[in-house]
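Each field is listed here:
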Amino acid sequence: GDLLQIQHTGSKKYVTVCSEASKTESNNLLVNLMDENSDGAIFKILPRYKVRSEGDEVRFGDQLKLESVKTQGQYLHVSGRSQGAAGYNVLPDNHELNLSATESALTLIYHYSPSVKQPDKALRTGSCVRLFHKEDECYIVAEGSFASTNRIVEDVHCRQRRVDSGKRSEPSTSANTYWQIEKEDDPRTGEILSWGERCRIKHLPTRMYLCVTVDLEVTLKERAFDDSDFDTLFSFYPLIEEGDEVLLESYARIKHLLSGQWLHLEKKEHYVRKNFNPEAEGLAGLQWDSAELYKLMTSRDRGDYDSFTLQEVSEDLLDRFNYVAGIVPVLSDHITHIQEGVGMVGLSQKQSTRVRDTLVELRRWLITDDERDSKNQQKLLRNLRVIELLAEILKSGNLPGVKQSQAEICRECYNVLKKYLEGD
């Protein structure tokens, strides 16, 4: 019976009931994420079944329903058909959350509570880290984007980044170094990870998992959620025994469970970029940096040489990453419409305005008063392949029959690129 609000941690926005119709079910109301804290963002928590009643404590695992305070008698509801079946290319396999007279049963699952005392610097599953090879000053990286047709642009390798007393005394801010640690049995939990415990290592920009093939090649793969996923299981082992919990900033060796091999950096084997051609025209011929790249391999030997520091990615950097990651599907969906011919002749004014407003917001967000923040945000546009998406949209400007709305979108693409090129 208590009133509550639901805040999305990635965007810091509130789940809010809107006055327009749902995208997938026209009889229901649209639910969106909004900055404003309004009465549309307030819900009453109610038991789904009569085994609980109003006034009882809510327990983890309980089934519940959420009633809108603004529109009483209407509940949060999961659409019966996917967004793809309703004609939307953004996350087509997902189902929409809307507001309906028919409630959906929701289950409260524990992630973690900041009020629960935990060892200092203990690594929680669900956290994001960088894997830094201390001996050779290299990060484990990959390049690509979850929204691209070819999600992997450059496969897993090690990128050298020498530590000095200047600007490189701080950890890398490139999203290509971001890895999320997931517990084997439940990726939703935020429990403390123990040494030797099974986990999966997920590359955030591509949303694919680190794995070792039968040929002992280190690569990325998409989870199939069956027995074939055993090649994505790893465990961390301490270089120095200090307790049961995996600690951030500690030294760890990484073991692949299925093969029994250990991750190993081989400095004799340079990694050669597969998607870089210095003679190519356009973006394919641009080289973003000249850092030394090495192959990430496996070794049967458990050597102290191959210990990795688990560097925590700050909440601020993750918020920036999540912001750009939320924009990427909007742009990739628009490109799909263009390729299907819809963007030239049949894109609704509402959809065109949504894309244009997204680009305007991105442009305003890109450059800040802090030069370092601006550089980090510019870097995210490279890491998540936003520059390539903007270039693809701009190609439509030369096609016959371009509508005025599409011309405005192209203009905003140019404005974003202009902002991107500002600064150092």
About this structure: Residues 47 and 217 are 50 Å apart (CA to CA). The radius of gyration is 24 Å.
